[in-house]
Amino acid sequence: MGKINFGRVILGGIVAGIVGDILGYLVDGLMLAPQWAAGMKALGRPELSVSQSVAFSIIGLVYGILMVWLYAAIRPRYGPGRQIAVLAGLAIWVSGVLLPNAGLMWGWPLSNKPYRNDDLRRDRRICSSGFGRSSFI
Q1: Residue range 107-137, pLDDT digits in tens
Q2: 53, burial (CB in 10 Å: exposed 0-12, middle 13-18, buried 19+)
Q3: Does residue 1 fall inside a structural domain?
Q4: How far apart, in whole angstroms, are the C-alpha atoms of residue 68 and residue 115?
Q5: Structural domain that includes position 12
Q6: Per the structure, how many domains does the chain have?
Q7: 2: phi then psi, degrees, rounded to nearest 5
Q8: 84 part of a folded domain
């Protein structure tokens, strides 16, 4: 078993994180921006601040580093290749995005009953787009 080159893991993770942040910006910042603005306005909340956007970008970099580290850790056992890289990315997505959002759906079930603003203030739930971007409401 070879040793993991952590310098390359960090560099590759930063590149992967930047790519993820760019894709997140294209989806949440451009394509879904009107829906995000309407949703936040309906909840009586301000739009995302610069500090929140920076925090989301840092989280994206951490996800990228974790994904590259996981690939480097499983590569000696399963071999190199795109399929293993996709599995590493999928594992990070499932553990970091899918499972937390699925857990939130149990706490705030989807229904036709509209929530009042005072219910939202009392419960302090989290709203997520499913692309890893979450915000407290």
Answers
A1: 655 544 555 555 554 444 445 444 455 444 4
A2: middle
A3: no
A4: 40
A5: 6-136
A6: 1
A7: -85, 160
A8: yes
